């Protein structure tokens, strides 16, 4: 050919083909790629048409799988149904809180509703001028909506703090629509005499007062008739859960016993609001009780379930007389009683005191055990789901990556020219599907653990509720050992800590252990798998070298080394956390007091407010450095494990890279690319889970501090007087129930005492704890002689020290209880054999709070709050209106005088047998003070609440709930004990009983109790006065022989 010509492409192609044909059988190296390729189906995915259809199919299947998981199976909030349910809670369709909108003046609708309908939604009123202007700015559709409808929409929300938690009910009476401007100036007296029934009622009261003043002796109360009747012995029956049963005695009247007629009474045992559940806590049902001939008492037993090794707050259930199935007897009060179940187990899970010391391991273990038993299947589901989560990230993802790189791809590359490799493409698809399905199972496990773990509703709020219930049902003196701020702080903070740092960390601990176990397992499997694979490919494969085994050792060393560093710093961590907690609790107490007592700030001047602020700032300055120390200590301790893991990972990177290069370049060793990737991921997973384990142990050590605090609060013995009463009642029942046994209790007193007075024993002590003697409304006292308060009278008690007087009233009403006397440790509880104050059994005694009562958190309106007394609704409305109260008004909005009137009305509707009050008319408005005093007078002297109901034309004859046709008998005797009364308000009755408490108080051996108050010389020569305590460090009434009694008479 002529080389001067440039060959055409076709000419070059023909020459090349001829050369190839001539050398076809020469076996050159390029022979394989010049042959026509056998292209598999999955090859050239980016150059052929089927890749788009395959992509569409994969996306469609993936989306369908996600929809099935999220919508149909798991039903998460990604589904439209649950999304719309949550969106419906938005405030006016906005992502704003009601507080924010109210402060930004963007809630005219709510403001108008507040004026249009009073709190509780019971009385319609005309809106104020400000509300009218707000309504004018509304849209036409919003203005056309009725106030009741708008209020209904507001009430449909989950919780409205303005209206409280109780849904309002319609009142029996709806007042006329009057303008606020016409009645804002009216007081209780004007409101009271607007109602005809109130005018008539007060006329009846005045007539009775005029008649009673002329009497030389008090009117005889109407006792129970001399007929056959039956009643329960007490209003309250405390018992211990560990006893397995409670024995409840019934009493038959003397006339019934003398008649000799058989009598069988059905008693109903049922649930109530006390928290006790039938079959779970007690055996509910109808019990038939038979009175033997000639016996005054009959006893029946109710089985109480003992929850072994499970701490429980006190709960109660109801017992009431149902009907007389044999005989002809009536019911008498008390026909209903409460059975209180007390528990002696320790929190948590009855952990023994001998196991409470040490490192807190037993406390943590028993706490976890108690919650595991209580949660049951939910706890098990959470544990399984949490342990499954590492399976996807550690096992499945690592193996899928390893198999794709070291098996599928290597097999395709190493396949012979005519060998089919379609299976390896299918293998990649299958592995991708396995990865995606594993992701779906991972999502299922995440949803299960999120929904079943119960961190908020199951643990945090549960323990907060237990703390709150414990606090609410403690006796008054039991609150002195721990401040209210300590209880509130533990309820909010410690309950949150033990939930997140103790309870949930158990699942995180199990998850980390599973993840570490899978990581170690994978390292071992990968090392030996690579060795076996290499040995199968080459007969001259080397044995596993020290470097291969070193990767396994490196993983095993990281775990104990990281955790050891955390363990050895535990005491330092405890000290830092406790210091932080104490300083924050003090700051929390000051802030809580300021916020909850904001009403008193109006009486503070600028200096006093600045002093409050400086105190908070000073406490904050102490708290913040302690917080820094605790924060740094916890963070630094957790980083010990991270440092150990980081060193191990760096070493693995160096030697793993060298091993990979040796294998790829020189064929030395067994390290492959997939194995190296897997080791990197495994070491990172080990570091991740070792770090999590370190954080778990740091969190648990922090939680031990809060667990000890909560355990101390929950194990603080509460309701001690009732526990003492339960032991005495059990002994009394045993003595009465056995054949031929005595029908008397301790010290020869009958089971139902017949005394008509409250007796304070000579030498009776009431001493407060030595570490909490300041800040209470009750003072210490000691009586030098027996004090007798007659019942069935209006008794006026006077004393110079009002705190001492309140202590006497509290002891008479069982609000507080006597303590031990000389020769024992002062301040301890009395033994079961001692009796400091003797109160006739079967009486309902009550002490009216010394301050005004506001219960807006319980019920939004006065009428709903008064209905808790058990009185009929019509009677509650009539009595409240007669005293000038608006039944629909919120109790939160009452002023001091109105709140005091509300307290008196509430006490009269409860209708106790003995009502103890301390200056009950001190805050009552002047124009209502005498009326309320006469009302309480008539309640005491004319038969109690039934008489008031008769004058209000609302009869309140007590009828049996099971059989409304049966009337329940009750004596008309009532007792009113008033401390430091104003004589000109109560009026002088000839049959009043007056007690001068000064004659009964022990004031030291050197003091004459009957001598007038004058300065005297103390043993140290210091001049003191009974009229005024000149120095807070000097205690009047303290002598050398009674140095352990402080402040028995001092300090006004």
What are the salient characteristics of this protein?
1052 residues; alpha/beta; 5-stranded mixed sheet; 29 helices; 48% helix; elongated; disordered C terminus
Task: Chart the SSEs and their pairings.
Blueprint: H1 9-22, H2 31-34, H3 50-73, H4 80-87, H5 98-103, H6 108-116, H7 129-136, H8 140-144, H9 147-155, H10 188-192, H11 196-213, E1 229-232, E2 236-240, E3 245-252, H12 254-259, E4 263-270, E5 285-291, E6 297-303, E7 315-326, E8 330-332, E9 336-342, H13 361-375, H14 377-413, H15 422-452, H16 455-472, H17 484-537, H18 546-567, H19 570-596, H20 606-666, H21 673-714, H22 720-737, E10 757-760, E11 765-766, E12 781-782, E13 787-790, E14 794-798, H23 802-812, E15 837-838, E16 845-847, H24 862-866, H25 873-882, H26 896-910, E17 914-918, H27 926-941, H28 945-951, E18 968-969, E19 975-979, H29 983-986, E20 993-996, E21 1016-1017, E22 1023-1024
Parallel strand pairs: 1-8, 2-9, 8-18, 14-19, 14-20, 16-17, 17-19
Antiparallel strand pairs: 1-3, 3-6, 4-5, 4-7, 7-9, 10-13, 10-15, 11-12, 21-22
The proportion of residues forming helix, as a percent range, comes to 40-55%
The unreliable regions are 107-179, 738-754, 1006-1052
Report the strand count.
Answer: 22
Mean pLDDT across the residues is 77
Please outline the major beta sheet.
5 strands, mixed
Report strand %.
Answer: 5-15%
Shape: elongated
Rg estimate, integer Å: 41 Å
Structural class: alpha/beta
| Distinct helical segment count | 29
For the largest beta sheet, what order do the strands appear in spatially?
A: 6-3-1-8-18
Whole-Å distance between the termini? Answer: 134 Å
């Amino acid at each position: 050919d002529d080389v001067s010509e440039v060959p055409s492409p076709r000419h070059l192609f023909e020459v090349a083909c001829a050369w190839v044909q001539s050398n076809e059988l020469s076996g050159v190296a390029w022979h394989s790629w010049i042959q026509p390729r056998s292209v598999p189906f999955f090859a050239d995915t980016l150059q052929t048409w089927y890749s788009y259809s395959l992509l569409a199919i994969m996306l469609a299947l993936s989306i369908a799988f996600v929809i099935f998981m999220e919508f149909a199976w798991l039903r998460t909030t990604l589904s439209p149904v649950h999304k719309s349910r949550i969106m419906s809670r938005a405030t006016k369709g906005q992502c704003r809180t009601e507080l924010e909108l109210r402060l930004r003046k963007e809630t005219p609708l709510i403001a108008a509703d507040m004026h249009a309908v009073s709190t509780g939604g019971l009385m319609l009123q005309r809106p104020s001028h400000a509300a009218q202007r707000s309504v004018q700015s509304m849209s036409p559709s919003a203005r056309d909506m009725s106030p009741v409808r708008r209020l209904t929409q507001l009430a449909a929300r989950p919780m409205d703090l303005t209206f409280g938690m109780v849904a309002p009910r319609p009142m029996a009476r709806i007042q006329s629509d009057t303008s606020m401007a016409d009645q804002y100036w009216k007081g209780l007296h004007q409101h009271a005499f607007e109602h005809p029934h109130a005018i008539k009622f007060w006329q009846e009261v005045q007539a009775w007062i005029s008649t009673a003043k002329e009497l030389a002796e008090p009117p005889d109360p109407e006792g129970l008739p001399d007929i056959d009747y039956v009643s329960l012995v007490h209003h309250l029956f405390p018992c211990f859960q560990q006893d397995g049963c409670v024995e409840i005695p019934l009493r038959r009247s003397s006339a019934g016993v003398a008649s000799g007629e058989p009598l069988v009474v059905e008693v109903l045992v049922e649930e109530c609001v006390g928290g006790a559940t039938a079959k779970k806590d007690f055996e509910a049902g109808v019990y038939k009780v038979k009175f033997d001939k000639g016996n005054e008492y009959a006893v029946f037993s109710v089985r109480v379930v003992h929850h072994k090794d499970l701490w429980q707050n006190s709960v109660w259930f109801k017992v009431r007389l149902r009907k007389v199935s044999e005989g002809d007897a009536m019911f008498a009060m008390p026909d209903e009683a409460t059975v209180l179940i007390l528990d002696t187990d320790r929190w948590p899970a009855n952990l023994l005191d001998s196991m409470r010391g040490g490192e807190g391991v037993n406390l943590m273990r028993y706490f976890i055990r108690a919650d595991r038993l209580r949660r049951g299947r939910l706890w098990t589901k959470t544990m399984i789901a949490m342990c499954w989560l590492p399976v996807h990230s550690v096992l499945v993802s690592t193996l899928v990556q390893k198999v794709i790189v070291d098996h599928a791809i290597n097999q395709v590359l190493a396949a012979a020219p005519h060998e089919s490799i379609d299976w390896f493409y299918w293998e990649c698809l299958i592995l991708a599907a396995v990865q995606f399905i594993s992701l779906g199972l991972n999502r299922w496990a995440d949803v299960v653990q999120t929904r079943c773990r119960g961190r908020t509703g199951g643990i945090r709020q549960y323990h907060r509720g237990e703390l709150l219930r414990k606090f609410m049902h403690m006796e008054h003196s039991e609150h002195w050992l721990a401040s209210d701020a300590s209880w509130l702080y533990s309820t909010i903070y410690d309950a949150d800590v033990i939930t997140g740092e103790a309870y949930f960390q158990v699942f995180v601990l199990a998850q980390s252990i599973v993840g570490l176990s899978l990581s170690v397992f994978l390292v071992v499997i990968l090392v030996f798998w690579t060795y076996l694979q290499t040995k199968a490919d080459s007969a001259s494969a080397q044995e596993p070298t020290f470097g291969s085994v070193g990767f396994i050792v490196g993983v095993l060393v990281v775990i104990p080394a990281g955790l050891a560093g955390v363990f050895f710093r535990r005491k330092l961590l405890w000290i830092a956390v406790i210091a932080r907690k104490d300083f924050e609790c003090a700051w929390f107490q000051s802030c809580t007091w300021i916020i909850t007592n904001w009403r008193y700030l109006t009486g503070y001047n600028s200096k006093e407010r600045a002093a409050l602020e400086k105190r908070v700032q000073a406490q904050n300055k102490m708290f913040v450095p302690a917080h820094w120390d605790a924060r740094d200590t916890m963070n630094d301790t957790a980083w010990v494990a991270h440092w150990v893991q980081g060193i191990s990972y760096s070493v693995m990177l160096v030697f793993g890279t060298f091993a990979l290069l040796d294998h790829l370049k020189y064929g030395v060793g067994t390290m492959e690319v997939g194995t190296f990737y897997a080791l990197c991921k495994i070491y990172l997973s080990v570091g991740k889970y070792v770090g999590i384990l370190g954080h778990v142990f740091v969190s648990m050590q922090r939680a031990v501090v809060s667990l000890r605090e909560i355990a101390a609060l929950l194990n603080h013995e509460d309701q001690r007087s009732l526990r003492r009463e339960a032991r005495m009642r059990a002994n009394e029942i045993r003595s009465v129930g056995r054949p031929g046994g005595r029908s008397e209790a301790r010290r020869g007193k009958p089971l139902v005492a017949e005394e008509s007075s409250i007796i304070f024993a000579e030498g009776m002590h009431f001493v407060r704890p030595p570490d909490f003697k300041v800040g209470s409304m009750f003072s210490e006292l000691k009586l030098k002689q027996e004090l007798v308060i007659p019942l069935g009278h209006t008794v006026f008690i006077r004393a110079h020290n009002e705190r001492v007087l309140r202590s006497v009233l509290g002891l008479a009403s069982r609000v507080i209880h006597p303590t031990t006397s000389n020769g024992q440790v002062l301040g301890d509880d009395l033994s079961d054999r001692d009796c400091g104050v003797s109160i006739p059994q079967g009486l309902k005694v009550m002490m009216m709070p010394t301050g005004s009562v506001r219960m807006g958190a319980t019920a939004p309106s006065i009428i709903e709050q008064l209905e808790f007394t058990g009185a009929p609704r019509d009677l509650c409305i009539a009595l409240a209106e007669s005293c000038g109260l608006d039944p629909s008004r919120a109790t939160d909005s009452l002023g001091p005088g109105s709140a005091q009137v509300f307290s008196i009305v509430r006490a009269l509707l409860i209708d106790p047998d003995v009502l103890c009050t301390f200056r009950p008319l001190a805050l009552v408005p002047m124009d209502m003070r005498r009326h309320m005093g006469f009302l309480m007078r008539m309640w005491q002297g004319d038969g109690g609440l039934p008489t008031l109901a008769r004058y209000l034309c609302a009869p309140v004859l007590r009828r049996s709930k099971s059989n409304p046709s049966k009337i329940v008998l009750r004596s008309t005797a009532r007792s009113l004990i008033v401390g430091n009364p104003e004589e000109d308000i109560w009026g002088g009755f000839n049959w009043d009983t007056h007690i001068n408490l000064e004659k009964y108080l022990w004031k030291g051996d050197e003091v004459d109790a009957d001598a007038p108050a004058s300065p005297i010389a103390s043993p140290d020569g210091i001049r003191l006065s009974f009229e005024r305590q000149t120095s807070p460090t000097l205690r009047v009434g303290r002598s050398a022989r009674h140095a352990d009694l402080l402040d028995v008479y001092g300090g006004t």
